[in-house]
Amino acid sequence: MNTSKQISHWRVVAASVCGTSHIRNKQLCQDAHNWQLLPDNILVAAAADGAGSASQGKIGAMVATEAAVEHLSHKEVSRAVLADDLGVQSLLSDALLAAKKAVEAEAAACSQQPQDLATTLIITIATPEMVAAAQIGDGMAVAKNRQGNLIALTIPNNGEYINETTFLTSLDAIDTAQMRLWREEIVNVGILTDGLQMLALNMVVGEPHKPFFFPLFDFIENAEDKTLAKEQLVRFLGSERITQRTDDDLTLIIAAFNRS
Q1: pLDDT tens digit string along 209-220?
Q2: Which of 31, 51, 150, 220 could lock 256 by a disulfide, CB 3.0 to 4.6 Å apart?
Q3: Which positions ≥6 away from 133 have C-beta within 8 Å?
Q4: Residue 182 to residues 55, 154, 205, 232, 250: CA-CA distances in angstroms?
Q5: d(CA 92, CA 248)
Q6: Strand 121-127 and strand 130-136: pairing?
């Protein structure tokens, strides 16, 4: 292999870890994530948080993230398609719908109601020239451009009342999903579930917290060993710095586009 010339590519690391409250109660992690690199430097990723009130929330989150990424990986997603705003919106809507149908089918196969597999879902599509995200429920997706500007593609959606969340299995989930498209020279993307919201979001101004994201983006940009990077991310999510602030399950997907 010729290593004299570096090829531009996405570098991705992701992890879902069990929150301290679930560990104490001997419960499974309700979060899940999935991602895939498609041809032509197209990154698709998804994160989900199974509802604590749902008996099979973990399964719902796993099925939703797998179905969303699988749907996009089987579509003819190309730079040409992503150059059209309506095309991007259609891809995201179809991926949400595919995930919803997959969760409903899994519920039926297990003789459960769809709400027994209730889950949030965030889907992101990114290239070096654009990023788009769709979200149902809480959590957030962010991106950073080459000028160092950080933008919230989605923000936590807790419904009309405190502690109320819209789930993928809700009747109006697809119609009320958040969607945003940002056409910039993208260098970083981040997706997280609600366990990290208090650390990652400046609640006063409703913007991503730069001191949280920038060190993580620096980390992934310099992480050459995928296995070691995953281990380091898991340790970070389980560190006292994090667990002192949240006892919920945690999912974080971070990506950097290496142009060298």
Answers
A1: 999 999 999 999
A2: 220
A3: 92, 122, 123, 124, 125, 141, 153, 154, 178, 179, 180, 191
A4: 37, 11, 20, 30, 26
A5: 27
A6: antiparallel
Q: What is the pLDDT of residues 84-130, one digit of tens each?
A: 999 999 999 999 999 999 999 999 999 999 999 999 999 999 999 99
* DSSP β-bridge partners for residue 143: 151, 189
Q: What dihedral do alpha carbons 210, 250, 141, 104 form, nearest 10°?
A: -170
Q: Which of 208, 174, 175, 176 is nearest to 191 (CA)?
A: 208
Q: At what angle do helices 85-109 and 57-74 cross, to 10 degrees?
A: 140
DSSP for 15-48 reads: EEE--HHHHHTT----EEEEEEEETTTEEEEEEE
On whether the CB atoms of residues 88 and 78 are closer than 8 A, the answer is no
Q: What is the DSSP letter of 114?
A: G
Decide: 197 and 139 in contact? Cβ < 8 Å: yes
